[in-house]
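Researcher: We plan to redesign the surface later, but first we want a full-length starting point. Tokens attached.
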């Protein structure tokens, strides 16, 4: 097994304050000015709106417009974004802002945070390779509110939208939102996302059996896109020759090695073979009595490492569970395309912050990482207010108003 490396160490603690430096005020202000995100806007300027969404995502497991309205009145949010203290905003105003604010501002803010996070904390590698994991998840909606994909029984007008995701370094997230029927197929969605993501030397794309087109495998090989995936147990292939026939392959209590071969795959519906050769690795799972097949165009690492790489794909399943259970990804606060894009960009930013915080501070639980992150944020706001007499008086005034409100 080759060594696994990462710049992130659980022995090096990282504060919320340090993480928020990934989103400096000057960056927010520059992007707002560049994309005129506040043109004709008197309330909820883009920077403060972003902070409200971020605060609300961190403070709730079931977010709604009314909860965001309530968070806007929260004295601790007012301390985080003091310039909003004179504003009054209703849930309908928040909804209108979500619908009409320029989503490109949030997109560029997300991209800037992603690049900064990658530069400072990225770098998880297996030997000389960088693992990028891909998968999709579906979110239910209703056709009369938002156009979506028809999946299964649609008699009640229920449809779904798809979010196809790239996940790397245990915290870097890219999401693509699809609502058209053509992207229901993973052959379309996964292939498109894999090809759109900028290619870096040593990248290995890992995806499941949803993407299985032999033509796509040929295309990836011709484009020098390295990948690891699984094949269905009844996939047809022709063994060209054994790969590394003199190598020693060790079994474990869990798995038994069967083969590591150079193969060509039969294309669907006929007896034509793929243009290119691929590497097929086969193991027998002793506990389940199943045989698993890994397919790859990576040739210079051990078969056990190929299996390890594919096992890492499970990380993205864990990510989806975390984002659905803790980060409000199970529903949309507003069924408008612009609003959904804004919320997705903010959710990705919040999720990346929490995942870096989790990894850097050695926290095992996603839920606990989110709770600790938000608590530390609130305590930091309080400490800064205590150290500044003017801020402390403002906080006291807002606390009294909040307690005394009808």
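Model: Full-length starting sequence:
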């Amino acid at each position: 097994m080759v060594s696994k490396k990462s710049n992130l160490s659980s022995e090096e603690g990282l504060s919320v304050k340090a993480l928020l430096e990934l989103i400096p005020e000057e960056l927010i202000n520059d992007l707002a000015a560049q994309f005129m995100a506040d043109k004709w806007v008197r309330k909820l300027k883009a920077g403060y709106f972003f902070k409200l969404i971020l605060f609300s995502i961190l403070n709730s497991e079931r977010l709604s417009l009314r909860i965001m309205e309530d968070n806007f009145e929260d004295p601790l949010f007012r301390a985080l974004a003091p310039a909003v203290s004179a504003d009054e905003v209703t849930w309908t105003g928040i909804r209108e802002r979500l619908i009409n604010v320029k989503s490109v501002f949030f997109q560029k803010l997300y991209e800037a945070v992603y690049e900064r996070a990658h530069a400072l904390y990225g770098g998880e590698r297996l030997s000389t390779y960088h693992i990028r994991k891909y998968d999709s998840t579906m979110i239910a909606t209703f056709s009369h509110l938002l156009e979506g994909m028809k999946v299964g029984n649609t008699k009640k007008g229920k449809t779904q939208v798809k979010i196809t995701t790239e996940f790397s370094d245990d915290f870097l997230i890219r999401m693509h939102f699809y609502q058209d029927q053509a992207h229901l197929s993973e052959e379309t969605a996964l292939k498109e996302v894999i090809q759109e993501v900028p290619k870096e030397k040593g990248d290995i794309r890992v995806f499941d059996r949803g993407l299985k087109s032999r033509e796509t495998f040929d295309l990836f090989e011709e484009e020098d896109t390295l990948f690891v995936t699984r094949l269905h147990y009844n996939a047809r292939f022709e063994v060209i020759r054994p790969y590394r026939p003199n190598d020693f392959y060790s079994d474990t209590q869990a798995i038994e090695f069967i083969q590591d071969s150079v193969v060509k795959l039969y294309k669907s519906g006929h007896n034509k073979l793929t243009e290119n050769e691929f590497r097929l690795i086969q193991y027998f799972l002793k506990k389940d009595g199943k045989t698993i097949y890994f397919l790859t165009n990576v040739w210079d690492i051990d078969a056990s490492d190929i299996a390890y790489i594919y096992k890492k794909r499970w990380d993205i399943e864990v990510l989806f569970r975390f984002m659905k259970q803790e980060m409000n990804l199970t529903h949309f606060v507003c069924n408008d395309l612009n609003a959904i894009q804004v919320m997705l960009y903010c959710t990705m930013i919040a999720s990346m912050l929490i995942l870096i915080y989790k990894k850097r501070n050695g926290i095992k639980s996603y839920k606990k990482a989110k709770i600790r992150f938000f608590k530390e944020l609130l305590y930091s706001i309080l400490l800064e207010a205590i150290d500044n007499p003017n801020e402390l008086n403002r906080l006291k005034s807002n606390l009294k108003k909040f307690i005394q409100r009808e």
